[in-house]
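User: Run a structure prediction on this.
Assistant: Running it now.
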Amino acid sequence: MMNLLRAFALCLSIGLVSEAVAQNVQPGPTLLTVRQRDALLCGAAPNAPGFGAPDSRGDWQGIDPDVCRAVAAAVLGDARKVRFFPLTSQARFAALQSGQIDLLPRTVTWTHSRDTAVGLNFTTPVFYDGQGFLVRKSANIRQATDLAGATICTFAGSTSELNLADWARANRVQYTPLVFEQNDEARIAYDNGRCDAISTDASQLIGLITAMRVPADHTVLRDRISKEPLTPAVRQGDDQWNDIVRWTIFALIEAEELGVTSANAEEMLQSQDPSIRRLLGQAGDHGPMMALDRRWAYNAIRAVGNYGEIFDRHVGRGSPIGLDRGINDLWTRGGLMYSPPIR
């Protein structure tokens, strides 16, 4: 028996039994539900520029909606088959737990308590961030501790509210919190002078500046008081669905590293590079191993582009927000974005 198990393990390691395994994979409960409904249900931030907000036509734009579109393309072959549900920070986890949505990419920070006690599984980070402070330039605030005695806007049911309290306690800074559920509510309160600063993820603060009456009057301090790995979440109890979402994100990262884009994906089907062939479904059974089509990743990349394209379009140099890649660059360029091998 042990010899048979060793032989099976060896065959699996070199891919000889992958086809047989793939042929026997059946859709799990979430994948089956999504296919029967013919639509993916996604949670969305009510208004987080760069990460999730409806445009003038009502179409959702941002990193998070594009993650949903990539998963819809991988699962259903059509990135348009997504329904977005705007959710507050306090309502988002209950919506996922109850089955109101299938996927929650809504600027969710991966934390220990959320991962272990809230019935969620986190896939892989799509953006590495840290909490900062948005202030008026005219206030001459140079560092976060200069906010002693200030009124600071933040968000209910978020890590931002908790991080702010921890930071203030550790640094013996007295402040008055003004807590909101929606980004727009906090932005308007700050713009109208009700608070001296807003504290949340620095990337979101930069996005909020673009919506101020006079954007040039505001800045984000250099201080970062937390780690915020923003990570799409799924319900616990369906490993296959967790794999599908995680590996779709990995495929977008791998595509950037291999030079596969939305524009050249069709041409890249002719590539003889083994890594590109596996990514695009020309070799191996990586889609069927998750009960998906062999071109699951190809469909996702064609629909939304690789990770770099998504970043640039919504928060990078090609967007009004204008962020540098920084730690969200590929590992080959000194960043943290890294996909395990697709093989």
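The two ends are 27 Å apart (CA to CA).
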